[in-house]
Amino acid sequence: MSPPRDFADVRKLLLDRVQRRPYAAAQLYVSRHGRPLLNTAVGEARPGVPLTPDSLVYWSCAVKPLLSLAVGRLVDEGVLRFGDRVADHLPAFASGGKDGTTVEHVLSHAGGFRFPAGPGPYRESFDDAVQRVLRMEQEDGWTPGVDQGYHQDTAWYVLAALVEALGGRDFTEAVHTEIVKPLGLSSTRIAMTATEYASLEPRLAVPTFVSPGGIRRWPYLISRAACGTKNPCHGGYGPMSDLGRLYEAALDTLHGSDEFPVSARTLAGLVAGPRGTAHDRTFGRDCAYGRGFMRGLTGHWGFGTRWSESSFGACGLIGHVCAGADPRTGVVIACSFGALTVDADDTGRFVDEIYDLAVGDAR
To answer: Are 62 and 68 in contact (CB under 8 A)?
Structure first.
């Protein structure tokens, strides 16, 4: 493979933005066919503290695939199938007309219980949130498995509850011991213990992003309270290099490796789209989902235009995070742009340039 052109132009563009947006930062990891091409950071993790490639950034919703992989472990163990009715394992879920909703529907944003009325992950206990979600009513006019709409929070509480009910332990422990550690993601954490937080706190970066009201900073999200919260929706921390290596290992498994914590057959089922491209009722546009992953990344927030239909990954608004893999080209990109990008189109332009450099076809 011929080496790609240097990524210096991308870094320079981001550094130019740092001058106009103090305390904003970006962390980028890129590889192709398992060969690292870029692992860098620009800007500040917090005032006066540089962001480095080893800084721990907030993964936002890009953490969701870790939980879907823990669900995949249950499939490999034979205690769960994608076609199972959720209510067969969590009887309380049958309320509100959801008795026919399957695990696949929940994983692929087709469950029809999108918008909980409650205080949110950092304002109520995990157990209270689970019980509230289980009791939600099916949305009027929704056909599970046909209609689709992004479930930002609700689905992930159900999936975490399944992992705990069928695996017999805290879902955060399952994710760490069954997914994170076997993959060697040594700096990745969800629901940090007090000891872990004391050790890792100096490496944590304040999440930032651009909203209609301007640059927003979320220092609370690196507080002891937030980092210790059981949050299955968007509660992960780690360097982008760890997130990138997750996708590198996934590509290896799809190409025949047997060293991934989930079997190749189950992983292929998780990243495959059960419906193909369909209208998303949450975002108001057409896109595709796998089972716990976004599918065909060009159709999703911030990923740009280069990805193939077989690509898979996840993104997060807080931190402007985009992470994914493309089996067609072997490209893996994991980027947290923070407030250095302003919206999906702006983020996508950077991702397009990075993708082109990774394949050696810069434009």
So the answer is: no
Angle at the Cα of 13 (from 7 to 18), degrees rounded to 5? Answer: 125
Kindly report the average pLDDT of the chain as a whole number.
95
What is the four-CA torsion angle of 137, 143, 148, 150, rounded to 10 degrees? 10
* Tokens read off for 191: 């629901």
* Mean pLDDT along residues 267-283: 96
316 burial (CB, 10 Å; 0-12 / 13-18 / 19+) is: buried
Express each pLDDT in 55-107 by its tens digit: 999 999 999 999 999 999 999 999 999 999 999 999 999 999 999 999 999 99
Using CB atoms within 10 Å of the CB of residue 350, give its burial: 0 to 12 exposed, 13 to 18 middle, 19+ buried: buried
> Alpha-carbon distance 168 to 91, whole Å?
17
8 A C-beta contact, residue 294 and residue 300:
yes
Phi-psi region of 319 (alpha: psi -120 to 50; beta: other; left: phi over 0): left
Per-residue confidence (pLDDT) for residue 361, from 0 to 100: 52
Please report the sign of the dihedral spanned by the C-alpha atoms of residue 354, residue 360, residue 361, residue 363.
Answer: positive
- Phi first, then psi: give them for residue 323, nearest 5 degrees: -145, 130
**What is d(CA 253, CA 247) in angstroms, rounded to the nearest whole number?**
10
- β-bridge mates for residue 333, sequence order: 30, 324
Rg of the chain over all Cα atoms, to the nearest angstrom = 19
pTM over 0.85: yes
**Can you read off the two tokens belonging to residue 337?**
């742009």
State the Cα–Cα distance between residues 152 and 326, nearest whole angstrom.
24
Amino acid letter, residue 100? G
Structure-block tokens of residue 166: 């069928």
pLDDT of residue 362: 43
Question: How many of the other CB atoms lie within 10 Å of CB of 45?
Answer: 23
